[in-house]
């Protein structure tokens, strides 16, 4: 009988975007690390995302997607850097043209690779059949694990994260703290502004501090408007970096989020999430790892899901799927979480 192939000793894991997808990767790496504590793991990603992997004991290979690692020549440069670092296998959990070029150069250097199955056909079928539960996709975290298994590793699926104490960047916590993240990079996953204002009013009544998580521009303007309107609301934009925001989320009693990064940051901190879904659907495999499906809010409509990532324009022009999840529905779910945490 032929001897089994030796396991890699230094694994490189490639994922450079999007933020929420990168934020799901630590769950898979945690399971792999538990089974193989002596394995050296290097994550190839953008520097902005390094805080996601705190406490995992991984190394980093910074990927400059707009600079030195842009284009085919840039991927050759990155593969050469990986070889110099002593990588002896690579897991491509991104599965895009850039990572395919990277894999090609690694194989040129004699480094074995494995890539993610993005299940495009199944995603199209799920959307075509209106989110049929029978055709729900395997969770993204598990598909990350599958890539590692193709390289010979054997390990259990990751357990949900346990809540741990972290320093609080906004000072001692008193009372109930809730986060609200109504935004996304895509319109089909962004809560309507007027409904968002009403949701803030209802949430501010239910907690001692309400934090608005946002980006810049109009998102920051909305958050500042809410901060000026309600004395217990804090607009976070410009007050915390990514690492500090993650630490704050670990102290929240509940996070209200769209299908967006904030949901995945809360999942990394084991903070309960009330998630709001519009054009997309948790059955596509993107629900925060360990998040309670009972806290998902979505409308049962024949037109949804209409998109994998929420980028497709609404066929009716009004994103009625998002309006169907009312601010009162959000407040009621938050009440459930707060009652459960205080019981």
* Overall 3D shape: globular
Name the assembly state.
single chain
Nearest-integer average pLDDT: 96
The helix-strand sequence is: EHEEHEHEHHEHEHEHEHEEHH
Q: Cα-atom Rg, whole angstroms? A: 21 Å
Q: Tally of extended strands?
A: 11
Hey, roughly how much beta strand do the residues contain? Answer: 5-15%
Question: Regions with pLDDT < 50 over 5+ consecutive residues?
Answer: none
Helix content: 25-40%
The secondary structure category is alpha/beta
Main sheet overview: 6 strands, parallel
* Sheet with most strands: strand arrangement: 8-7-6-9-10-11
The tally of helices reads 11
- How many angstroms separate the termini? 59 Å
Please provide a written account of the structure.
The chain has 343 residues and is an alpha/beta fold. It is 36% helix and 14% strand. The chain has helices at residues 19-35, 71-84, 97-108, 120-128, 140-150, 193-206, 218-229, 242-249, 261-268, 320-323, 327-342; strands spanning 10-14, 40-45, 59-62, 89-92, 113-115, 177-181, 209-212, 233-235, 254-258, 273-277, 296-298. The strands form two sheets. The chain has a six-stranded parallel beta sheet, with helices on both faces. The mean pLDDT is 96.
